[in-house]
Each structure stands twice: as C-alpha cells, then as structure tokens.
Specification:
Elements lengths: L18 H7 L8 E5 L3 H7 L4 H22 L3 E5 L10 H24 L3 E5 L7 H14 L6 E5 L4 H17 L10 H5 L12 E4 L18 E4 L9 H13 L9 H17 L2
Parallel strand pairs: 1-2, 1-5, 2-4, 3-4, 5-6
Helix pairs in contact: 1-8, 2-3, 3-4, 4-5
The structure holds farnesyl diphosphate.
Length: about 280
C-alpha cells in the first residue's frame, strides 16, 4: 500500500521502494545515535474514520510498538517518544483518563517484549504530575528493565522543554546557595547534566508526524543541532518503513554543527587558489 511520504525510487518514476530495499540502503555505520519523535495526528486519524479521538490514541499504540522494535533492531542507542505534554492536561478529562489507561495497558502488555529486546525503559518529564497508579506502573517497568543493556527507550510524559530547563536552572541555584557549585562553573555542560536526558546523547534526528512544522516544546535544549524530518503520515499509520525513510534522508544530509565541512573547506581553498591564479 502506498503511504503519503513514501520514498519514490530514484529517477522520479513514482515507484515506492519496498521496506526491505529501504532497510538495505541504510548505512549502519552512520545511524543517528538518538531519535526523538513527536507523535501527532491521532485525533485526525480517528476523525477521518468517524471514530472518537481515543480510537486514534489506541491505534497509535501499534505504531509505538513497531517503532520501538524496529529502532532496537537497527541498533539505535536511544529513542524518545513524546506521548503527553504538560499542556495536554488541558484536554477533556475523558481523553486524559483514556490516555493514562492506554499507557498502563501498554506497559503491562509490552514488558515481556522490552525484556526480550533488551530495551531499558524510562519515563521523562514531570512524572510527579501523573496519577499514582500510572507512576507505579512506570516505576515497575523502569525497575524491571533497568539492567537491560540495549536501546534506551524514553517516553516523555507531562513533559515541557521550557519547564525542564527552568527546573535545571532551579537545581543549579539551589546547589549554588548550598555552596556546591560556583556561578562561574555554570556552563552548558552543567545545565545538560541536570536535564532528564543527562545520560543520553542529544537527538540527531527529530521526526514529527502529521505534517505540522513545529517543535511543540519538545527537548528544546537537546535538539539544538538535530536534523528535522516531517512527514504528512498520521501517527497511527506510521510504521518502520517511514522510520527507515527518515534515517535515509538523515544520512543524505551534511551535518555541520555551525562549522564548515572538510570537503567544503577544501572546495573553498581550491576556488580561492583558482581566483589567485587568474589575478594578474
Ligand atoms: C497527538 O495526537 C498524540 C498524543 C497527544 C498522544 C500520543 C499517545 C499515543 C500514541 C498512545 C499512548 C502512548 C504510549 C506511549 C503507549 P493528537 O491527539 O494531538 O492528534 P491531532 O493533532 O490529530 O488532534
């Protein structure tokens, strides 16, 4: 089946590459170390089918399962999924409750797979805002998978990038008051060490589904140099073939981190030399 956003074969003939072909094209030596995903479009997916929004969230769980498994299989070091923002508490109570219920269902059903795939699970965000039974389920899954050595899988819950940075600043201020840190020691590293992702590399690739061109307060500090990949595919339709497309696109890009590449530098030096040769 053709999905919007599918990769057409080179040559522009519009043929969709089979999933196995996409996988075969991935350069495993240049995988993004950390992939972050803004899962969006569950509501629209449901509306298009005349279903309640919650049906879209439920369908989105199959995508979560597929992407976690595919990422672990590829050998990606870390995967962070944005499941619930601090702003999402303003949604209708029924929808919030349903999301919490789905999350618990997911954790209960997926534990065996996470163990089998050697995945270490952790929640990030303002987890203390969540209902006690959800916190308990999260803590149990974290504890049960804590000794796994494969992919780090994070779910962002009651998450806000700005609040996370503010919390890091507050921690530093408290430490300064106690004399544990001197103001002149507060640098980028000190802030990064107090974020929820302190033990992970920054995301190299940020995927957003359903076509919106926003970062929606997600990992604001950490995505400073992430490559963005936006697809019109709605989250419940997102499968590993779309992840492969995102990774292939990422691998076609030249990452410069504000610098110029050695290649670019060499080209510019050659051009300058040519100009000098032409100048009498
Ligand atoms: C955005 O779609 C999606 C969410 C707010 C929730 C994501 C949740 C899941 C995929 C299921 C539960 C999660 C886990 C980790 C088991 P939207 O509702 O904003 O869609 P819309 O923009 O089309 O309305």
């Amino acid at each position: 089946m053709k999905h919007p956003g599918d990769t057409a074969a080179p040559g522009g003939e519009g043929t969709v590459l089979p999933e196995a072909e996409l996988l075969a094209r991935i350069d495993f030596l240049r995988l993004p170390r950390h992939v972050a995903v803004i899962m969006d479009g569950n509501g629209r997916w449901a509306r298009r089918r005349g279903l309640p929004r919650v049906a879209g969230h439920r369908a989105g769980i199959a995508s979560v399962r597929d992407i976690v498994e595919a990422s672990a299989r590829l050998g990606i070091e870390a995967l962070t999924l944005y499941a619930f923002s601090r702003e999402n508490w303003q949604r209708p109570r029924g929808e919030v409750n349903a999301l919490m219920r789905l999350l618990r269902e997911y954790l209960a059903r997926e534990l065996a797979t996470l163990q089998e795939k050697n995945v270490r699970f952790r929640a990030i965000g303002f987890v203390e805002d969540l209902p006690p039974e959800v916190r308990r389920a999260l803590a149990e899954t974290e504890e049960a998978t804590s000794r796994n050595t494969g992919m780090d899988f994070r779910i962002a819950l009651s998450y806000s990038g700005r609040s996370e940075i503010a919390r890091a600043a507050r921690r530093l201020a408290e430490e300064a008051v106690l004399g544990k840190v001197r103001p002149e020691e507060i640098d980028e590293e000190a802030i990064a060490a107090r974020l929820d992702t302190a033990d992970l590399p920054d995301p190299d690739l940020l995927v957003r589904t359903s076509g919106e061109l926003r970062v929606s307060n997600f990992l604001l500090w950490q995505i400073a140099y992430a490559e963005l990949w936006v697809t019109p595919v709605l989250w419940p339709d997102f499968r590993r073939r779309h992840l492969y497309e995102a990774i292939l696109d990422y691998q076609r890009r030249e990452r410069r981190f504000g610098r110029v590449t050695a290649d670019q530098e060499a080209r510019e030096r050659a051009a300058a030399a040519a100009r000098r040769r032409r100048t009498p």
